[in-house]
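Consider this record:
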Amino acid sequence: MVSVVDNAVVQICFIVPDLDVAMQSWKDMVGAGPFFVEKNLSVPVNYRGTPSFLEIHVGLGQIGSIQLELIELTSDIPSVYRDMFPEPKAGGFHHVAVFVEDIEREIAALEAQGHSMGARGEFAGTPFAYMDTRSKTGAFTELYQYADGMQSFYGNIAAAARGWDGDRLVRPMSDVL
């Protein structure tokens, strides 16, 4: 079992064929938002032992206490996203994210259980790893090293959602970094 900070899933992620349509749909269905967006994001990663990039458009919003990540793929480069959705413009549920106190220990624990590391890198200076837990959970599990900066980032997105009046659905990611 992974030792998760506060025993909480902090994010759910969906791969979507069109980020703009998906953000509007999630707002209309459950009131998710606002979404903080970065288009043409290229994140260097180690994908299954090989240097690579995650090339995406991403929108981060909130549903209650859970962050909602929507990702539109912008390239055919092999990735943990393409592992689940190899066809262009395919999509669906991809991963849950959790904070862990010791990412190296948790990677080793999951590998000992037979789960391979799909990719690892850093976002906003915080180490992350996508563990391929599909055989047990049907999805990937994203581990984030617990860090004050990442906690603040998540907190800023959650704060923007509290009392949100539905105005300005799309906002720049830089507003919350």
